[in-house]
Design a protein that fits this description.
The chain is about 25% helix and about 35% strand. By secondary structure, the protein is an alpha/beta fold. The chain has a domain at about 5-285. The longest helix is centred in the N-terminal third of the chain and has 17 residues, at about 30-45. It starts with 13 loop residues before the first helix and ends in a 5-residue tail after the last helix.
């Protein structure tokens, strides 16, 4: 047994440390082995977060803590066949390229990553480690927030694959690149994926990431986004996980001068779902647009957390998140915008609007501002309520049945967030996914 297993560890971390020892990767370069070992030691020290942690106070992880879910093995032939059905269900009609991960590993037979412009490298993280080690290593070896976040640390230790996208300066990709994360079986395992997007100076790209599966599993996904000066990235995320699945996703973005990030997330299914976005605006004149929505029913839980750190002058941030909770579901939004000393002329606004449909549903919202500069324009707000009874009465008075009238109002409420996506094909895709979820939304107690 490796010495890496000998350090003190929290009890809930032991099964994952043992899994790490069983699945040591002889093909890993030395620098990656060192990084994995350091990350695993940090996870062993931190263990699972509890509600006493402010960042995790709205999510109950006791079931995940008490029931170990070791990493999944490679997908079987049967699993790949099931993945084809999922791909046909959730995939885009005409992506510029498509990369598919089945049970956390690249599936070349389901992918289509040719026909990209020169200066674009798009492939699996495993291939990037072998073919472009400097690209991957530059992000892993710097001081990282992984060391402060237990599940990002576990991800760094255990990730089997993911995707990497490296775009040379001055390159524009027309049409979206699609990444599909499929869980093929009711495995009771965990899927750890690590990805990287590096957009060169003056380049432009859109990506769509969809997460889906069936049954009982835990997905732990981390993606790093690096935007050079004047780069533009649009990232759309759709989460439609299995009924009993746990989904923990983190995006860590760094923005160079005048870079623009547009991020939208739509959380539709999964028993426990958490989406976290951390943006550091390091250059002057950056623009970040963060928006999204969650629709919950039954006993679903969903959290959206955003952190935007303005470290340079002239930046702009716009945030708009919508939440809908029915049945006994529980949703939460936590957002923080920080303006550092010297980051003058920052213009940042944050809004959280929520619908609670029934006495047993709940939504918590906590927008925050931390301002250390004196020439800024910042605001935040939140609202939680039920459907507008006057609007509901108006629709019913015109012959629309009660349930249909309620769904029309819920759709109109959620569409406001989707309409912030500028590209029409992506907007229409999101509206189609939203419509499918609304057709099955059970809002009665």
């Amino acid at each position: 047994m490796s010495a890496i297993l000998d350090f003190p560890a929290r009890p809930e971390a032991r099964p994952y440390i043992e899994a790490f020892g069983r699945e040591r990767r002889a093909s890993d370069p030395d620098w990656l082995t060192t990084y994995r070992n350091r990350s695993l030691a940090r996870f062993a020290e931190l263990g699972f977060p509890s509600r006493r942690s402010e960042a995790w106070r709205y999510l109950d992880l006791r079931n995940l803590e008490q029931r170990p879910m070791p990493p999944a093995g490679p997908a079987s032939v049967i699993a790949a066949s099931a993945a084809r059905v999922q791909l046909a269900e959730i995939g885009l009609a005409e992506p510029a390229s498509r990369l598919v991960l089945v049970d956390g590993r690249f599936a070349p037979k389901l992918s289509r990553i040719e026909r990209l412009p020169s200066g674009v490298w798009f492939g699996s993280m495993a291939a990037a480690i072998a073919e472009r080690p400097n690209l991957v290593r530059s992000g892993l070896e710097v001081p990282s927030t992984d060391m402060l976040r237990p599940f990002a640390s576990l991800n760094a230790a255990l990730f089997a694959d993911g995707f990497a996208l490296d775009i040379a300066p001055g390159t524009a990709i027309e049409g979206p690149l699609e990444i599909l994360h499929l869980a093929s079986e009711d495995s009771g395992s965990s899927l750890h994926t690590r990805s990287l997007v590096a957009v060169g100076a003056g380049s432009r790209v859109s990506i769509v990431e969809s997460f889906t599966g069936s049954g009982d599993y835990w997905r732990n996904d981390v993606v790093e986004l690096r935007l050079a000066a004047n780069a533009e990235l649009t990232r759309v995320v759709v989460v439609e996980e299995g009924t009993n699945a746990v989904h923990l996703g983190e995006a860590l973005a760094t923005l160079g001068e005048a870079a623009r990030l547009c991020s939208f997330v739509l959380l539709l299914s999964g028993l426990t779902v958490r989406h976290e976005a951390t943006v550091r605006a390091e250059g002057k004149g950056t623009r970040s647009e963060l928006s999204g929505a969650f629709l919950l029913s039954g006993r679903q839980e969903a959290n959206i957390l955003t952190t935007v750190d303005h470290a340079a002058p002239g930046g702009e941030t716009r945030e708009m998140f919508k939440g809908v909770a029915a049945g006994r579901a529980h949703g939460a939004f936590q957002g923080r915008i920080t303006v550092r000393p010297g980051a003058q002329k920052v213009d940042a606004h944050q809004m959280s609007h929520n619908l609670v449909l029934g006495p047993r549903a709940a939504i918590d919202t906590k927008p925050e501002l931390e301002i250390f500069a004196d020439d800024v324009k910042c605001s935040h707000g939140a609202a939680v309520g039920d459907l507008d009874e006057a609007a509901l009465f108006y629709l019913r008075a015109r012959g629309i049945p009660g349930e249909e009238a309620r769904r029309m109002l819920i759709e109109a409420f959620a569409r406001e967030a989707v309409e912030r996506v500028e590209q029409r094909p992506l907007r229409e895709y999101l509206l189609s996914r939203l419509g499918r979820r609304l057709a099955t939304l059970e809002y009665r107690v």
